[in-house]
Structure formats: structure tokens, C-alpha cells
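Worked example 4.2. Below are the chains of a multi-component assembly; read each line carefully before continuing.
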Amino acid sequence: LSTSTRQHALSAALLQRAPLWQQAEARTQRLARGRTEDTADAVRLADDYRLLAHDLARARVLMPRSRTREYLESVYARAHATLNHGAWHLGSTLRRLFRADIPAAVVWLRPYLLWTTVIFVLAALGGYALVRRFPELIALFASPDLIASVEHGKLWTEGLLNVVPSSVLSVQILANNIVVSLFAYCAGFLFGLGTLYILGLNGLMLGAVFAFVHEHGLGADLFSFMVAHGCVELSVMCLSGAAGAAVGEALVRPGELGRIGSFRGAALRSGQVLIACAVLLVGAGFIEGYVSPDTRFPLFARIAIGVSYWLFMLALLSGRLWGRRPGAAVALNAPQTA
Amino acid sequence: VDSATGIDVSLPVAGAGARSYAFVIDWHIRLMLALAWYLTAALLHNGRLALTPPLTNEPRWFGAVVAPALALYFLYHPVLEVLLRGSTPGKRIAGVCVVTRDGGAPGIGALLVRNVFRLIDSLPLFYGLGLTLVVLTRENVRCGDMAAGTLLVYAHPAAEFALTTQQAASRVGQLDASGAELVAELLQRWPTLTAQARAALARQLLSRYGASAADLRGFDDGALRARLERLTRPQSVPT
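Applying the procedure described above to all two chains together yields the following C-alpha cells:
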């Protein structure tokens, strides 16, 4: 046989297998969408995978620039992904995320969380000390309206509900907090420095404002305003900062994976925590809009709400809210060494 | 991507053009959705032909008109990518989709991280950083893809190829395999091509398989198609 005749015959024989490829494609689609629980179907997919690999290898040699090869590449890639990843169910993926992945990521972030909390607290103490010693520096941290209001013996939060309704206030606050939280995380991309800057700045502002209102005898009022939503809001701030710091450290000290690989690993693990952060900030936003500015809530009720919501946060982040047993998250938290 | 069979899986990575095309379509869709919501809700809220917001901060206006429109605009990508497993209407139209680096559907965490990093990719303006990274990186990825371990790849319209392949399989009589494919695809696309384009392509193909220009002189649209179909008819083998 001449080479061209042989090639013609082989190509023709290969194309005769097209119905088998289409069956494999249909089976792959069924299994990828989770529309079948048939074990025999799943077993046949493994055979299909070998068949497709074999035929693709032949198509790459016999018909490298053909639709047939492109088609086989596509079906083979789908079969590979289906075999290696299985079906995708939104419900079970979400359940696994909140029950296992987020708690494991939080345990992994513990050292970063410790350091970001220390930085935030030190910055707040620094801001407090700075404004206590040099009161005029408050102009660096607070708006003229806020300063004028406090100097007149009134917190800017007083009468807030007369200006903005609770619902509007809540959505504005939660949107703003989520954006700040996401920025604190993303800023870790700048080798962690951006995260430190955002945390430090927020800590300085908090300390400075507290020192300023304390100076005017309104410290207790501000505490009363903040305690219901602030416990979770500040904790989430530190948590998203910790996630950003983990991303930053992966870039500064990449290890064996290389800078991009290490960045990817850290971002993927720590990024899951942001889902929990966003959920918690939505709740904190509603408390800040409905409870914090409402003078009908006494201090003990505010403290009770703040502490309860903070305990809820712990339950959510540890997975216990979804029935996870204590300590199980640690077992899942094997460090990625690949 | 390495596989157990030793035959690597190849993922056709989409470049800056396909990305931008998908993004522009999605941007228009989400803008239209948000505007449509805003306009409809504002008209219903005001009860007359006026879009002006109330002078005071009305919760009903904010909750029913402004907040849903903003949510449609800002949550379009993360929500649809999660629900459609790494795809959006714009990506579908552009023929691309998001996959993990081994070709699988990305998880919720990866899709969220990919979208969170839009904050960085969109800096300083018009996705400047993201586009620069797409152009400069080997796998055409932006910062969000690097962080999430995802790739934007061309999603093969397998069904379209399936028909061509099947038809080619039945026509590989007197033609070689690639010729059979070409003829099958031309006949499949015949109604969608202009008369001039399909005539030019048909003449080119027929001349490749022995017909001279003189033979084809005077052939109209129908005659060319019939000649192509005759060419692809399996030859009877003499016994």
C-alpha cells in the first residue's frame, strides 16, 4: 500500500467510530450534570475515556488539522474533567464550603489572624495616644462635620435615623464594609503591604476617634453605639486582613511552589473565608442600621446582641453551625506541600 | 494537562480579544438589566411618567428601585458564574468558559476569588492591569485567574463538530478524510453562506478533486451543490 492509500484507509476507519464518540459525549454530559446515578454508566465512561484517548492520539497523527481532531479534543477534555472532578451540585458544594472548607481555612489563618489583630490593636492604641497627646491631629482622621458635632457635645450618630432610614443606612453600611473588607484582602496582592496599610489606617482612625470623643465626655455613648455591631465588624476586618496577609506572605516567601503557585494556593484557601466575611457583614450592617442608632435599645441589650452575634460568628467560622464536631477542622487542615 | 492515559488534554486558551468580547457583551447585558429594573421600578414607584427620586430618603425607593439595580449590576458575574459553572451569557456568546487548570469546573471558592480580584484587575481604569497581564502572560490570565487557578478557554461547540464528523464518516468513500470533512462542512453551512461565497468554495473544492474550470463553467448554485453531493457519494466497489 502506498502511504497516501494507507492514510486514507486509516482515516476512514477512524471516522467510522464517530457514533462511539457521540455516545461517549452524551454519557459524559449526563454524568457531569449529575443526571444519572447509574453505576454501569459511570464504569462505561472509564472505557470511553480510554477509547477517546486512543482515537485522539490517532487523529492527532492522521488528521491533525481537522474538525474531527478538534471534536475529539473537546470530548476527551470533558471526559477527563468528568472522571477527575465528578458532578457539580450547588447545594452540596455550598454545604461542604461552610462545613469543611471555611473552618479549615480559618484554622490555617490563625497565625495571620493573631498578627493582624495585634497590628490593628496597636494601631488603635497608637491613634488613641496620638490624639490624646495632640488633639488637633483629629483633623487627619475625622471629617469636619464629625469634629463639629462632637465639639457641640453630640455624637454624629445621634438623630441619624431622622436623616436616613434604617433600611437605607443598613444597605449603605454593609456595602461599604464589604468593599473595605474585600480591599483589605485584595491589597495583600501588594506583598501584604496594602493589607497592613488598610488595617493600620482603620485602627488609627478608630483609636483617634475614641480618644477625641472621650475627651469630650462621649466615650460611653460611642461604645454604646458600637458594641452591638462592632464586635463582629472589627473581627471580620481582622479576618479579611489575615486572608490578605496570607496572600502577601505567599508572594514574599513563595517556597517550593514558586511565586505564582504559592500565591494561587494562598488566595484559593484564604479567599473562601471572604464568603463567610460577606455573610457576617450583611448581618452587622443590619444591626448597625436598625439597632445601633436606635436609642430605645438599652446598653445591656446592645451588649447581649453584640456578644450573641460574635458567638454566632465563631460557630459559623468553626463549622459548628452546620453540625461540625469540635477539632474536626484541624484534621482537614493538612498543609499543602505539593 | 497530563492524564492517566498518557494522552495529554489540550485546553485552547482564550486571548485578550475573546475575553474583551465576552466582557463587553456581559457589561451590556448587566447594564441593560440594571437600567431596565431601575426604570420599571421607578415608574411603578412614582405611579406616573417620572424617574426622579424622592427628595427624602425613602426606604421603599431604596429597597425596591436602587438596591436591586445595584445588586444586578455588581453581582452579575459572581452569581452567574457560580450558577452556570464558570460561564455567563457573554462568555457563551463569545464561545469561552472558565475552567480549572486541569479542565474541570471551578468551585465556588475559586469563582469568588476570581471575581474579588476584579478590584485589582480593573485598576487603574478599564481593566488596565488585567488586560496588560492577559497580554503579557503565557496562559493569557489576569490577576484573578492567577489567584483562583483558573483559565478562560474556548468551549468547543462539540455538537456542531459532531454533525460534521458524522457526515464526514458517511462520505469518506472516494474522498480522503479531510476532503470528506470539508465537503460535509460546506454542505452543512450551505444555507448560511452567500451565493457567491458558497459558489467560490464549491468550485475550489471540486477543482481539488478533478473538475476543471471548463467543466464547471455555467454551473449554477443548485448544480454545484448536486456535484458536491455526487462527489461525496460512496463509490461502489467492483466485485
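Take a moment to check your reading of the output against the notes. The mean pLDDT of chain B is 84. The first strand of chain B starts at residue 96 and ends at 100.
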